[in-house]
Give the backbone structure.
Amino acid sequence: MSNYSLPDLNKARFRSFGYRADIIRDALKMDETKSHLGDGLFYHVITYGCQANVRDGEVISGILEMMGYSHTELLEQADIIILNTCAIRDNAEKRVIGEIGFLQNYKRIKPSLILGLCGCMAQEDVVVKHIIDKFPSVQLVFGTHNLYELPQLIENIIVNNERSIKVYSQQGNIYEGLPSVRTSAFKASINIMDGCDKFCTYCIVPYTRGQQRSRLLDDVLAEARDLVARGYKEIMLLGQNVNAYGKDLDKENGDFARLLNEVAATGIARIRFMTSHPWDFTDEMIDAIANNDNIMPFVHLPLQSGSNEILKKMGRRYTNGEYIALFDKLKSRVRDIAISTDIIVGFPNETDADFEDTLRIVEYCKYDNAYSFIFSPRPGTPASKMEDAIDVEVKKERLQRLNARLAYYSKMNNLKWENKVVKVLVDGPSKNNPSVYAGYTPQSKLINFTLKEGNIGDIIDVRVTEGKKNSLNGEQE
Ligand code: SAH
Ligand code: SF4
Ligand code: F3S
């Protein structure tokens, strides 16, 4: 059973004082056999969840291509299908379990097909045990800490005909230099850090992703400069809490404000970042956003709840007053800034008054965009053990009321852009109508427009003709 290593959420909670992640630059072990295992074969990766998972999906694709595999869009053509999963809410997990059931049909038709599961669900002991017992056709399971082991794990399946189930629950290291296949030729994500130490009481991410660990500024800048040299137009700096960047490194490395300024100095046309925890947002960071024209005026600033009582139970470490003060500062210091948020309704024993507090903050902030969720108890988290007397119907009704307000403000904000000319990075033909193009404004608003001249990847002027609930319409100037 040497190819079995199971995760343990209890162990994943562990943080040692003063821990410093190792930077490993040669983790990927390839040899003659491994670099040809996939020759003539096809892979397909299905990614769920956040941008961190999307970036991991690009790395997984990169490793598979180094092994000789080629990408296919067709499931029936694939020789290996990997589900790169998210554990943030129960419904995300249910979907994946359903998908595995469905993919087993392909395995029946093509017995050599390798079905694999990775990502945050693979870090949960209950999930992996369930897979081992109930889904024998899933031969490959690996976690968020060992993407680099993929070649060995696949070799073991193909050569030894054994299951490869290897997940580690550890604080985590930093892996530099892994290959990746970027999904776009002009927009790229750079992971500036991994993991999270905030331990919001409802959230599973600190358990599935390990301790917060920042990459060295020099490594991030080298990646950014390489992207600029290759003609990229937009960089998204990624982390669970980008504002906490560098806190786990020596002071000389610098913080997120310095990182923003230095990435801006690479000359890349557009910089975005995600996600900002209000707790770590400094004035220097706001200055960096305000002073660099290539840092886009858009901040995702998760509120989670407007009630101080609930914020405390969530472990968010700010009050609604502190949140508003930060919100006001961003609005006053960064011209035309758009702000979006995340909100959880139905946290254990959230009262009507607590919920009204959330609505009050929403009325005040009039968010450009928002994601709202009903609280979902996650294994191993403190909130999953809290008593909760609130009926699910009450939670659903609150979510509906909240969503109606959020939609109203989103539309109001979009209406304000009518007749204005905005800079748009052309992404490509829109989903529903190939003669209409889609892209994003600096404020991260989706805009559909007619393209008169120019190409995908260009930044063009578009006049907004209509502000809708979730997007804008426009015409190229
Ligand atoms: N690091 C980011 C959040 C990443 S998870 C941050 O702190 O802002 C994305 C969102 O999922 C969170 O902002 C939260 O609103 C939601 N979420 C996380 N855990 C949840 C849970 N157990 N139930 C419902 N929503 C949850
Ligand atoms: Fe989860 Fe909180 Fe960390 Fe965000 S900051 S990933 S919500 S624990
Ligand atoms: Fe989901 Fe993991 Fe991201 S739980 S939101 S994929 S960090």
